[in-house]
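Justification of resources, computational component.

The compute hours requested in this renewal are based largely on the per-chain cost of generating structure records like the one below. Each record pairs the submitted sequence with a full structure-token output. That output is archived, and it is also reused by downstream analysis tasks.
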Amino acid sequence: MFPVPNSLSPSRVQSFLSCPMAFRFASIEKLPEPPSVHTTRGSLVHRALELLFMLEPSARTNAAAQLSLDTAFAEYQTNAEYTELGLTEAQSRVFFGESSSLVDAYFAIEDPTSIREIGLELRLEAAVGGLTLRGIIDRLELDADGELVVTDYKTGRAPSAKYEQSSLSGVHFYSFLCHAVLGRRPSKIRLMYLKSGDIIELAPTEQSVRAVVTRTTAVWKAVEKACLKNDFQPRTSGLCNSCTFKTWCPAFGGDPSKAAAEIPRPLATVAAS
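The structure output for this chain reads:
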């Protein structure tokens, strides 16, 4: 039996739906996962854009964005998310260059001087029964009519039409949080894919907001059942090859009960425990 979590975020919901066993390792046992170049690059670019939007609208130039990236990169020099990548000097230059290209590509999508942001990396949470739903909105802004717009930056590849709706599940979640915390449903939620310049957007409805509560509550009940019965089933997919926990996954002949003892924890985590 495992303790039942009392909060869920969009990423944790998606994690459980993708693979309950991986969810157990990462979110219930909280076993450490090494950072990846992809996720760290995404975090760095998000930070650079956050710094850009802290400037006055007229100052949000491409040059200012690159300076914001320089500042963010300096911050990351002591951040474990970056240092644990173990990049060589040459690899670090490539990493920074790719990050710079993503920041530069942002300017081909929209004009940041026209954006009326009212929240950056905005943390919101709302209670649904005994469960707390929480999330971080990359950017919350007002459109020309004074309506709320949720924008979520993406540094990866845009999904195919087949997976477009599932990619919007996270921002639907943010739409619910805006409605619950701010008392206003966004007029638009959108995913901005920096690399390709694609934008996926839609207008949330009262029905879609209710659906978030229904779906998330159902996921939480499934999580609760899995915790109480210690029954987290693996779900194999193409993601398994890059999964940190594959060695201990029963789908590949592993013993999940050994993972906690065999996965090394960072020294800071050990010292704090």
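Residues 206-229 form the longest helix (24 residues). Residues 268-273 have pLDDT under 50 and may be disordered.
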